[in-house]
């Protein structure tokens, strides 16, 4: 398993200075000072546990899951509480083509996805609305390029469960989207403002 930390201030549209910090994949524990002078610390136990507490007014993303491979099922279980603006999702990037994708299981005061609903995914005991957000000539983890964000947003929120990522990739393709080969697939918490705590065990 790998752990992931991203610190930025992402919004729509995405700013150049924000996206330069989008890819920090942690195979060991790490701490440091960010560009704003704030200290951060991430612990990776090289196991299946994912524990995170936060209190923030700026965007961050942390997660745990699997690198590479085909779209797979991910299961997570444990304790979760949050308030404010946050998103709990299965998350990743692909190559050939480059895409960023979210399968949102629950969220706070914000509205993930946005835009026109392209269709639905009926999977894992729930219905998800599908969105696509195009980004053009912006920097991301592979340099300045064009890429799309694919979104599946679950209508009935849940904080634990199993997601069959392959079902979403297949449905996205049926709706005319083009996800590539996964770089990683992770259970993630993205926070924008507010506070919370989670303690999950992640498995395939």
What this model shows, in words?
It is a single chain. This protein is mainly beta and 204 residues long. It has one domain: Jelly Rolls. It contains two helices and 13 strands. The strands form two sheets. Strands 1, 2, 5, 6, 7, 8, 9, 10, 11, 12 and 13 form an eleven-stranded mixed β-sheet that branches. Strand 3 (30-33) and strand 4 form a beta hairpin. The chain is globular and about 40 Å long. The N and C termini lie close together (10 Å). Mean pLDDT is 83; it is low at 7-27.
* Number of distinct helices: 2
Content of β-strand: over 45%
**Reported CATH architecture:** Sandwich
CATH topology: Jelly Rolls
Task: Characterize the biggest β-sheet.
Answer: 11 strands, mixed
CATH top level assignment: Mainly Beta
